[in-house]
Amino acid sequence: MKNWINNMFKDENGNVSSKRFITFCCFILILVGFLSNLYFDYVVEEFIFESVMYIVLIGLGAAAAEKFQRKS
Q: Which of 5, 15, 39, 62 has the highest local Cβ count within 10 Å?
């Protein structure tokens, strides 16, 4: 399990990618905000939720784009 988590954050060169780590942290924040809104009646402001959501979308797009770049 630990090996799988370490490999999840690595880029094509085998280095830990800050984009992937930040994207994962923002995903966790979205999950916490969603669950707290759903179960605990804590209201997350819409602009905060959308801002973090855009960070996740851009991070996923950048991580996917790494797969298609040319090897040097």
A: 62
Element (H, E) at 71: none
19, 39, 40, 61, 66 from 49: Cα distances, Å: 19, 16, 16, 18, 26
Summarize pLDDT for 27-71 with one digit per residue, the tens.
899 999 889 988 998 888 888 889 988 999 998 888 788 777 766
Write out the DSSP string of 16-51: BPHHHHHHHHHHHHHHHHHHHHHHS-PPPPHHHHHH
Q: How far apart are the first and last CA of the chain?
A: 32
Check residue 14 and give left, alpha or beta (phi > 0: left; psi -120 to 50: alpha).
left
User: In sequence order, what are the residues at sequence separation of 6 or more whose Cβ sits closer than 8 angstroms to the Cβ of residue 17?
Assistant: 9, 10, 11, 63, 66
